[in-house]
Amino acid sequence: MPTIYHPTPIGVARIREDGGYISSISVRDFADGEDDDMTPLLLEAAKQLDEYFAGTRREFTFPIKQPGSGFQQEVWDCLLKIPYGKTISYLQQSKIMNNPLAIRAIASTNGKNDLAIVVPCHRVIGSDGSLTGYAGGLWRKKWLLEHEAKVLGVGQTKLF
Hints:
Layout: E1 3-8, E2 11-18, E3 21-28, H1 40-54, H2 70-80, E4 88-89, H3 90-96, H4 103-111, E5 124-125, H5 138-152
Parallel strand pairs: 4-5
Antiparallel strand pairs: 1-2, 2-3
């Protein structure tokens, strides 16, 4: 599976391609491997991430696909509908999905999202406005939310 490691303001993004789709983006403290073939799709994903971090891109347009059950796909599709710079709670997400009793399963599935930033699980917070779990670390979640608020000109509005 072609893989590249791309520097970002919050760490090194490991970007993977599988079958013509970006299948994984995870941000880590350092590269734990070496770049493979620099395919056009991997380079485009890195370019769009750079644009996101520069504040000039709010939506990603490269093809994505991550393996998961029908339920997981539904949860991740819901995440894609959260507007840039906005947050919802896990409870709100479960209600949007017409499945309020599945809040724990939805939260667990958010944590299994392999497409960090692009499928914006960082935009889901606790019902009390607190930051809750994020596979990349809560400091990265906070950074991403503050970055989006700053790009929107929201300033120091309390997000959590």
